[in-house]
Structure formats: C-alpha cells, structure tokens
Amino acid sequence: MLSYTKIDRQNPNKRDVMQRIKDFSEVYEVVGTKQASEQADRCMQCGDPYCHTKCPLHNYIPAWLKSVANKDLELAFALSNETSPFPEILGKICPHDVLCEGDCSLNDGHGAIAIGSIETHITESAFELGYKPKFATTKLGKSVAIVGSGPAGIAAATFLLRAGVDVTMYERAARAGGLFTYGIPGFKLDKDKVQRRIDLLIEAGMKLELNCEIGKDKSFEELENNFDAVFIGIGSTKGRYAGLEGEDASNVHLAMEFLTKIQQRNFGEKVDNLIDVEGKKVVVIGGGDTAMDCVRTSVREKAASVKCLYRRDEANMPGSKKEVANAKEEGVEFVFNVSPKSIVKDGANNAIGVELLTTTMSEADESGRQKVVINEGSEYIEDADVIIYALGFDPEVPNFIKDANLELDKWNGIVVNENYQTSNPKIYSGGDSVRGADLAVTAAFDGREAAKKIVEALV
Description:
This protein is α/β, with parallel strands linked by helices and 459 residues long. The chain is built from 17 helices and 16 strands. The protein has helices spanning 17-20, 33-40, 50-54, 61-69, 73-83, 87-93, 115-128, 151-162, 179-183, 191-203, 220-226, 255-267, 289-300, 321-329, 399-403, 432-435, 440-458; strands at 143-147, 166-170, 207-209, 229-232, 238-239, 252-254, 281-285, 305-310, 333-336, 338-345, 351-361, 372-374, 380-383, 386-389, 393-394, 427-429.
C-alpha cells in the first residue's frame, strides 16, 4: 500500500467545458475500475486514520479503500453502505477537500487519496452489477412518520427500514429528495441518482406521500396520533436578505428561489415566474457553494456575463475549491474584496447595479481568522440586470411546528436533546432544521443517529 510514491493523485475526468455549459448533465465522469484500484492502493492504511475521524459519518474509509485496491467490490460496497445512506451522492457533493481528503496524511506533498471519486465509483459500479443495500425482512411492528424527504429524512428512513420499522415519508413538493432534487443543480448531481435511492426505500417498504404539506394537507396531530414516533427533517431553506437599501427591486432574487425554479423547469413542472437571465448581466453576492451553483447555472442559462462578488479574498472563500475552479473554467468572473453598500435602482423599481465598497483583510487573530475591513470612500457601482443573493439560509418555521409548541432556539432551530428528541419526546428532529444551514453529510449523520435512537426507544 505504498504506491503513493509511484502513482500521483488523479482526479476524475471532466466533460469538455464548451460542451458542459450547454446542459445540466453531470460534469465529472465516474472513474473506472483500474483507476479506482490504483488510486485506492495509494492509501497508507494509517493506524489512526484522520480521514475516518474527519468524516461526519465516520465512514470506514481505509477499509473500503483496501477492498477497492484488492478489487473486492462486493465488500467495498457493503462497507461503504454500512455507515452512509447514499455514498454515491456524497462522493459527488461533499466538500472532500475540507473533510476526509483535507485530513489525509498524504497531503504533505504527495496529494490526498481521491476519496470522493472512489466512494462514488464503489456504489455506481455495484449498482451496475445489480448489487443492492440490504434492508430488514422482519418487521418490528412499529411505525414512524418522516416529515421532509431531503438528506436527513432519507437517512432516517434508510436506517429505520434497516431496523425493521415501517416508514411513511411526507413531502410537500412534487418529487422527493429535498435539497438533492431541487437545490443542487444537475451538473453536480444527476436527479435520476436521487430518485434511485428513493425507489430503493419504496422497494424496502417505505410509503411516500408527495404534494402533501403537513399542517395544510394533513395535520401534524394526525401524525402524532397514528405513528409511534415522528421525525422532522424539513431543512433550512429560508434565504437571507442583506438588509440593503434598494433590495426590494423586482430583479433581486434569493438563491434557492432561482435554483428551484430552474430545476422545476428542467423537470417539466409548472413554474410561476421563472427567473430569466438569458442575455443579462448577472451578479451573485456570496462565496459559498450555493453561490457557485447560482453562477454556474446562470452560465448554462446563457447569461451575457456572470460575476460573483465576495467580501473576502479567494483564500477565505467558504466554498469548495473545485467548485470555484469549475466556475472559472466556465467563464464566471470573480470580484473579491468588495462589500455591497446598496442596490441601485431606476425609476421603475428595477435594480441596475450594486454599489460596492472595497475591503481589505486584517492581520490574523490568535485563531487564525482574518476580519474584513471596509475601505471608506471606495464606493463604485457594478452594473447588473439580475442580482442573486447567496448569503446563507435560516430554518423555516411552518405553522405545524408552532402549533406543536416545539421548543426553538434563538435562530428558530428546533431544540433537541442528545437523543434527537424535541421538547415532545415522541417527536425527533435532525439536520438543518436543528443545526441551521449545514452540509448534506451532517444532515445524513443526524438522520442516521436519530433513527438509531428512535429504534432504541421503540423496542
């Protein structure tokens, strides 16, 4: 397992940039068996594997890397799916450079193991051969309702079904998947792959009710009365405004509104007020992965120009480095060290630009964190036809949560104890509805662990 001295890290191939910007198909190709085996064989099999520790799911990474290196796909598939509800998805969308790969011991100059691409290879290759994750065949005679079909909900359903618990999932949208389906663009995650996971759960016995909004189409009280437990995994999708003068302009939009409408259009669903950016100057404010989704979507929607404005420098961007690199390849222009002061409007309430102030970064404090310093008097205007805010998300508080009198924190997140129980011990929650906007992998962890606690309480 010392081939890292002979073989360099190799990333998965990407589609040609001039082709990929014409559609929403995935950018990265799934690596083949030979490349996966060679890359996995680079793993040193550390005695204290930092990759395993840094992974929120604590996946058995060295073990399935060794299995891939030995070309034992069946074992690799079993190990990978043991801890993760959807490894092939997380292999594509996780920020590996700051999680497992970021803590790889080979980052000292040899290049981290390509964990993400190998993770996707395992399950995609196994599915092609007809392998399937295992679910319980014996039922416990207990039932759980899951509200929300995003990462936390899918994870909870997966591990409840594995334990023999009956599951009914409720989703207000026309398709299941939550963030995976409507929030993450297809060029990062093929929607058929999401539906495949949902179909596996249905095959395992899960009941799915779509276009069913709890508190409107079905009362939450009914779930409490008819199920042994309820898991809430509704995510954190309420976009943030910046509080700037002029942001009430008709062409200032929130990121999730933009991304969701485009995906609905791509599905052929009815879309009210599609945000059309074709031939327009698009400005996206923000520096995270959602901002990257917005700028790259705008390119595919044939915007005349796309700029990403961020108040810090590139080194301090919170988004995945590979997403920034992909955006640059696709023609996005980045404007760093600028802070929006106001939205400039015309007489018809249309935004025509963003007034910006330049910034500099302070010296790092004891924690290594640098602060943004505004350069007073440095105002200038960036022209724009469409402005998209990608400034993070807050938890939604639907009426059913208010009516259930669940305890909320000051950020409107649902308060849970160490067992993922809310202030009503029959109701559990996890993911972004508890944490606030976070990673899909942390939502998966919460769903998995909550499922375990539910099973412990029911048996």
